[in-house]
Structures are given as C-alpha cells and as structure tokens.
C-alpha cells in the first residue's frame, strides 16, 4: 500500500466543518473521500490533521490515506480537483513515508484570525474576515499576546467542559499584524483545544477595544475558568494556515 | 448644493456591470443610487468614473453627485453602507471641489487582470482570478507588455465596431507581477476602450503560452484590426484598482 499526504485549501463557508459526520455529505472530509473513492473505485477514508469548525477555512489543511494505484500523483491531483467543488482544492498530492499519519505526526499548527477594523465592509474577503468595524489598540494587544505565549493548561481558553486528556498546550507565538484596515492574529503552537484560537482572539479583541486590561488575559491560567476569558469570535474569521510535521 | 466624491469597492460577480440600465436594479450604480435616494429623501443620480463590465470588480471606483444636507460625511458613509448589500461598500465619502466630476475630471486609471496559473483552483479568490491552470513565460510577457505601452489608436485592441470619438489612448505602464501562483497584469493609462484591458490581457497570455511572438502584439497598431489581437479574457478576472484625478 502506498501512503499519501494531501495538502488541502478550502473556503469553509458552506460546510459543517472538516470532519465527516455519519452520512452527511456536507463536510470537507466527506467531499474529498467521495472524490477519492470515485478515483480509486473502492471506499477511501482519510485522516485529517485535526478538525476545523463549521465555517472555518484552511489554506493548508493536511490529510493522509493509504491506497494502491499505478497512477502518478500529478494525475491523481488533477483527477481529484476535477471532481471536487470549487471551494475545495487539493494543492499538493505527495507520496508520504510509510509511518506518516496526518494527525498523529503533527508537531505544530498555525492559525490566522482575521479582523476587519474599517467601518465599511471588505467586499472581497467578507467571508474570511470578521467585520469588527472599530479601531484596535495594537500595542496593548501585543502586550497581551506575549502573556498568552506559554506552556500551560488552556482549559480556561476552551469550550471543553471536561477532558480526560491533557489540556496542557504550548502557544509558541502570536503575531499581531496590521495590514491596512485588517488586523491579523497569527497563532502558532503545538496544538489547540476546541475553540481555543477563537477564544484567545476574542480576548485579545476585548483588550484592543479597552474592555479589559492587557494583564487580565493571564487570569484563566490561574482560575482555569472559561468565564475569565473573552468571547468566542465567529468561525468565519478563522483560517488554518499551516500544519507542521 | 454640496458636491460629493464617493470611493466604491465592489465584488461585481452578481451585477450587470456598473452602469444603471433603465429600471433594472441589478447594477452597482443602481444599488448606490437607491441607497442615497433613501438617505436624502429625493432622487439622487450619480456619475461614475466610467463603466465596468458585467462581472468585473472594483477596489476603488469613484463617483460624484450633488445634494444638500446638513449631515456630516462620516454619518452619510455609515448610512449608505448600512443600506448597501455586502458586496458593495463605500470606502470613502468626501466633500469635493465645486468643479469636480467623477467622469470628466479623470486623468488616468489603473486596472488589474489576475491570472491563476496553478493546476488547482484558488478557493478563496476564485471569483476574482481567471483560472488559467498553466505556467506562463513571464520574460516574454514583459517584453510584449513594453510594446503595448504607447500612445496609439487602440481600436484593434477593442470590441468597438466603429467610433465617432477618438480611439487614441496612452497606455503608460503594464506591470507583470508574479505573486506565487498568481500572475497579475497591472495596466495604467489615460483611459481604456471597451474591452481593451481584457483583450490586452488575452494577447499577453497568448504570448506567455508561446502561442504568438512577443513582437506580434504591435501588429494591431498597424492594421487596426481586432482579429490581429488575442482573445478577450473573462470579465471576472478584471478589477478597476484606481482612478486618478
């Protein structure tokens, strides 16, 4: 059996997230599996690097699967893109080492949360940015962002109720980029809990709007209480940018 | 009467172009006039810098109109954006000098034609780029582009059958930019004839694909024959980037 690694871009607007759910076809994973199943002539199941929420996008999600074929990967990539809808694209279709697994082999991920601060909307990227419509105090947000970069129990920055597994994660860096009227928050870490990026982004926005102090973002690490973090921002502002192996 | 200048961004995908046509509401001009008419309480007609084709976009189209009101322009801008659909935005609403007219005062325009050369589609910007799916010879395209920069009769690079008005235009610059898998052609000139940018872009693409020589792009200036230029590329790859005054 050959092992394959897919790199996948998607506009998540009309999907119920990455992960296949029973028989519903309205997931990115489901659409890709349907296309691959048609190409290979038997059922193909793929392993993604992790879930993305309904409405969230990906510039480079990854997935792996095993299959036998003589077809070269260039041909496989053309075929799968021919079968996929216009809002999902396989941007790389590569042979992978035998032991590669898109979820189990992950060493890090990068997400971007995109905020649009102008009063007028961004007509071209309105599906990919959250229209805040207000200016942000970038200096204060950068101070806060530095306080979020740590190895810690991030359960207070998650929508998880309880977890049997460890909720300790390492956030390595958070960039606060000013790109014209867009403020882009770029999060890199070894992994992120459910809703963790959207809650960190919401908390940083509250700092940027002067609704809370820069220092207050450290409180959830002490209390482990979701109520001490900021609001969960909408899914459509979030993009999975990269997965590291 | 106050004179106003609007700067307007639009995703032209679902419109029949800029220019209002009779009673149809499916134009960008029509949508903006409807919103302004509601704000001012009487019929408002605006003058755009020029038409854009059905399906073509604008980053900064301009328009002017006269009206009387005590309302400050910040408030007017908020109101008009509240009334406009999400794919049209007024990005600046400014008082203009008495003699300013968005069409008659134009001194230059910049258009971008965006080509996507990767075999896979651009899922995020698929409405704004033309998916060519093939590599282009950029050096040859740059040689050709330089030959198109001139003051000349551009009737051969237009879909106009005949014209009573002058069809002499000056193309000042054409940049050929490589932005990852995107090749962006940026045209600046004193004005452009009907379909002129889309035909120049189509001709440059034929050069980039090796279908014609770089030198051949000068032929339509001699023959004034549309048949000697390349094909008209689709409207959705074209964006009006800027209007100069």
Low-confidence stretches of chain A: none
CATH homologous superfamily annotation of the largest domain in chain A: Pseudouridine synthase I, catalytic domain, C-terminal subdomain
* Distance linking N and C termini of chain A: 22 Å
Mean pLDDT of chain A: 96
How large, in whole angstroms, is the Cα Rg of chain A?
Answer: 19 Å
Structural class of chain A: alpha+beta
> Within the CATH hierarchy, at the fold level, what is the topology of the largest domain in chain A?
Alpha-Beta Plaits
CATH architectural grouping of the largest domain in chain A = 2-Layer Sandwich
* Amount of helix of chain A: 10-25%
In CATH's first tier, which class of the largest domain in chain A applies? Alpha Beta
**Main β-sheet description of chain A:** 10 strands, mixed
Number of DSSP strands of chain A? 10
Spatial shape of chain A: globular
Structure notes:
The structure is a homodimer of 245-residue chains. The first copy, chain A, is an alpha+beta fold and 245 residues long. The first copy, chain A, folds into two domains: 2-95, 2-Layer Sandwich (Alpha-Beta Plaits), CATH 3.30.70.580; 110-244, Pseudouridine synthase I, catalytic domain, C-terminal subdomain (Alpha-Beta Plaits, 2-Layer Sandwich). In chain A, 22% of the residues lie in helices and 29% in strands. Chain A is built from five helices and ten strands; from the N terminus they run βαββαβββαβββααβ. The first copy, chain A, has helices at residues 28-40, 73-83, 138-148, 196-208, 219-223; strands at residues 2-10, 47-48, 57-67, 88-95, 108-116, 130-131, 151-153, 168-179, 182-189, 238-244. In chain A, strands 1, 2, 3, 4, 5, 6, 7, 8, 9 and 10 form a ten-stranded mixed sheet that branches. In chain A, helix 1 packs across helix 2 (73-83) and helix 3 (138-148) packs antiparallel against helix 4 (196-208). The first copy, chain A, is globular.
């Amino acid at each position: 059996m050959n092992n394959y690694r897919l790199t996948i871009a998607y506009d998540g607007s009309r999907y119920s997230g990455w992960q296949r759910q029973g028989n519903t076809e309205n997931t990115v994973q489901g659409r890709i599996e349907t296309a691959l199943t048609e190409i290979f002539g038997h059922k193909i199941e793929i392993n993604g690097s992790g879930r993305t929420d309904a409405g969230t996008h990906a510039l480079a999600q990854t997935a792996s699967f095993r299959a036998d074929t003589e077809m070269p990967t260039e041909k496989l990539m053309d075929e799968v893109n021919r079968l996929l809808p216009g809002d999902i694209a396989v941007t790389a279709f590569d042979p992978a080492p035998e032991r590669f697994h898109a979820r189990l082999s992950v060493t890090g991920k990068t997400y971007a949360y995109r905020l649009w601060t102008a009063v007028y909307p961004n007509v071209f990227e309105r599906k990919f940015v959250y229209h805040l419509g207000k200016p942000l105090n970038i200096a204060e947000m950068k101070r806060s962002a530095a306080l979020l970069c740590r190895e810690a129990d991030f359960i207070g920055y998650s929508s998880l109720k309880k977890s049997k597994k460890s909720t300790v994660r390492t956030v390595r860096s958070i960039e606060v980029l000013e790109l014209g009227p867009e403020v882009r928050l770029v999060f890199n870490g070894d992994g992120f809990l459910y809703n963790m990026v959207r809650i960190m982004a919401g908390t940083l926005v509250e700092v940027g709007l002067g609704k809370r102090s820069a220092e207050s973002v450290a409180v959830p690490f002490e209390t482990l209480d979701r109520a001490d973090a900021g609001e969960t921002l909408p899914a459509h502002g979030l993009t999975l940018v990269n997965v590291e192996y």
